[in-house]
Amino acid sequence: MKAIEEKIAELIEPVIRDLGIALWGIRIIRNPKRTILQIFIDREGGVTVGDCEEVSRQINGVIDVADIFKYSYYLEVSSPGLDRFLFNLDQVRAYLGRSVSLELSLPVENRRRFRGVLKNIDGDILEIETDGKLYQIAYPNVSKAQLVPEF
User: Fold this and answer.
1) DSSP code per residue over the chain
2) What is the pTM assigned to this prediction?
């Protein structure tokens, strides 16, 4: 997680936890028109729209008082969904044997994007099978990991 996301997590995680909900992850999307702060929450049995509304009400003021953003932003609170982003190695590990999509900071065998089955994790080395081949990718090289839904 980047520094600003870590700071936001430190501020809002206790508030969310007090509601009986877990912080799944944080994304900040910057574009010329506006900044979007995405907060993903999860709980056993799933997240309701009411959960998202309550978390949004509770954390909006906390973020504003902390003056993290020097400009306006749009807050989105949602469940991680079926195609959930995976924000840390423990989350990736939980989906061993499932299909994932990875984007890398540095290419591996001239590729930056991989979509395949997560076969193994040894330390921080992910083994993903894609296109009939097994690739080894160091987790610190992963800039984005996402679960591929299976229907």
Assistant:
1) --HHHHHHHHHHHHHHHHTT-EEEEEEEEE-SS-EEEEEEEE-TT---HHHHHHHHHHHHHHHHHHT--SS-EEEEEE---TT-B--SHHHHHTTTTSEEEEEEEEEETTEEEEEEEEEEEETTEEEEEETTEEEEEEGGGEEEEEEPP--
2) 0.88
